[in-house]
Amino acid sequence: MSFHPRTVIEPFRIKTVEPIRHTSREEREAALEAAGYNLFLLKAEDVLIDLLTDSGTGAMSSAQWGGMLQGDESYAGAKSFFRFEAAVKEITGFKHVIPTHQGRAAERILFGSALKEGDVVPNNTHFDTTRANVEFRGATALDIPIAEGRVPGLIHPFKGNIDLPALERNLSENPGRVPLAMITVTNNSGGGQPVSMANIRAASELCRRHGVPFFLDACRFAENAWFIKLREPGYAGKTPLQIAQEMFSYADGCTMSAKKDGLANIGGFLALNDDDLAGRCKNLLILTEGFPTYGGLAGYDLEAIAVGLHEVVDEDYLRYRIRSVEYLGEKLTACDVPIVQPTGGHAIYIDAKAMLPHIPQSEYPAWALSLVLYLEGGVRSVEIGSVMFGRQPDGSEKPSAMELVRLAFPRRVYTQSHVDYLAEVLLYVNGLKERIRGVRIVDAPPALRHFSARMAPAHGELIA
Ligand code: F0G
Fold first, then answer.
1. In this structure, which residue's CA is closest to atom 21 in ligand 1?
2. Fewest CB atoms within 10 A around its CB: which of 36, 203, 258, 455?
């Protein structure tokens, strides 16, 4: 007999701390008004638990900080680049590794080199910057997740899967107009849901048959690999690294934000096999990001990413990471708070349409809920709904398929008692849900409006 603990602990101890600050409800009310009822415009110091994003907000390890001291800041051919390149190649196997300052820079450079007006890019679900970068080229960003992926309460092991018949149709109907197809792992905008290996493999085969390059948006590749290990037959005995390597083996390239599963505070990369496309990408990189051995990053950033890519596939880390999200999900589900099921990799997504059926989509229920979570508990989340996705390229409004509030977990930052506090806030707000009122847009830019829109309560107050 040996001891088998049920508690999944944080697999680290804390060596540096950053205080967080309690505020009063009155202070938060004033902060919301000053921020134009947009959580992106708050001062971070006025937030108690910040779940706005898991991007660039993680805690680095002592090995990463130590690695940063080894940063080689040579303009060209720095040692740090080669360490970074080796780490990326070990996982992805791609021939060309192009560092960028973050994920969207990799997207802009890939799409700027591969897309032309009138093209179509299929994806399970484009993240907002990915969509904006496709549309900026005059191309169409087509979201084709499986039907189950659009039903928040439905349990399915791989809700992030791409709809293979829809992909096939699209490839057949648009010959010469699909310069590449993508799958986002995990599917962030669709609830942080994983994509199965079988789905990646099948999508890759379809693309190959049509001569279309297949890319992964790999921001959360390690979390996706962990779900494959847990849920897909045949993978339980493989390591997350082996699973990730197989995922990448089916692709021709990837875009990556190292601010997520690179465990770094900044950075990203574009990696691919095609020599000609890589050459064009590097030329564009030099124009705006920098020389191809640093791509807008410092040598020390490349070091932090190289170490982070190694740490992120650690099994104890991934077990703790996915379990923390699931733990909050279980507490909410037990009290009938509607969330995207099953819980995904990096975040809890509250189904605001189901929770607040009295608020029409034209009054942005998920946005309203995110404001109330801040007002009552000092928690910052993000709307993934009709403020983020409702405005069409032609200027018209179309309600988003889902109205979600995402509570994204920074990596290695919060502990179980923070999660217990979160559950308390969410259950308290759930108790007053009938009184939550909608919001309206006062002023917003035409693209990526959620970042800077000024909003206001539609009926004078947030809570009746
Ligand atoms: N792709 C996905 C799936 C993402 O989640 C993100 C960023 C990007 C691309 C762009 O990467 O921020 O480094 O330029 N997602 C963050 C989020 C911002 O909050 O989900 P970036």
1. 103
2. 36
